[in-house]
Amino acid sequence: MKNTTPPGGQEVGGVTVANPLWLAPLAEISVPAVRALFRRMGVGLTHTEMVSSSGLCHGNRATLAMLPRRGEAPVVLQLFGDEAEEMGRSLEIALIRGERPQAVQINMACPVRKVFRRGEGARLLERPPVAEAMVRALVPFGLPVWVKTRLAGRGCPLSTGDFCEVLFSAGASCVALHGRTAAQMYEGTGDRDAVGAVAARFPGRIVGSGDVYAPEDVQDYLSRGCAAVLLARGGVRDVYSTPKILQALGYGGAPEVLNPTPAQRVATLMNLADDMAEEVGERGAMILLRRFLSGIFKGLPGATFLRRSIGTVTDRPSLESVVRRWEQVLVEGGTDHGGSGTVAG
Q1: How large is the angle between the packed helices 241-248 and 32-41, nearest 10 degrees?
Q2: How far apart are CA 241 and CA 107, in angstroms?
Q3: Global pTM?
Q4: Please, what is the average pLDDT of the chain?
């Protein structure tokens, strides 16, 4: 597929990006260290994880720590809540306490029960007037206002397209659309036909989301008229899928991320560990890091052993000892990784 992006990048929803593959907002995953990792892999834009408007208004330290950092551009701040006035106040606080993002996004997609029952996330599909008011409350701040939402299901007074029409009429610049209803959660397969129909109705303003694991998935969304595509669970499952997808789209990529050696994969892991430790401490970093082990060492001999061994470490020296031993044995062509799990993962 030929890259048709202008030399200065393409503009989507009022934000200039280098390419149309973006890291999705993932709760408890899209932390600053992970956003930095995926920028190194080449994504054109990242999102923060869901940031509570209530938490910001109450000065919650953990919530404030989720705000964008210096040097992250382009990054989108994602807020969630159930009330328009509070949403506006929370953005005002975010712009004072954190770095200015390139856009602000309202989460109208999260189907998790504790969020849904509070009238937040995907529940807003059932509350179009509130959703509209939220968008209008953020427009005066001068940032592009984006929304992430899902397909309309039972209980929704408007179709998906008509709901998006309300958002755009209120001042939204871009809508990321996941191809499942709230009731489906993350089960089954996303409906790309439905996403494509909305993208055709609003050219250049819809971002596709759901079931993105390979270059063909991204190309499919783009061929249906989506302006960009969100990489979520697929990116965690295989960290190096990002440069492969970008290469297939015609954006190229550095050799160290396209065809990483074992040593380069170890460096990726250790850099991620160090970045995480700065944010949540060494022990917390070791816990969060486990989510990325399969994705960093996918398909290599001894990956199963690594997952099992690293799952028990609590500090950086122990982590480095395990991965260096694995790397040495792999380079020497051996199979003894120090444990019984020596088959490929």
Answers
A1: 40
A2: 26
A3: 0.91
A4: 91
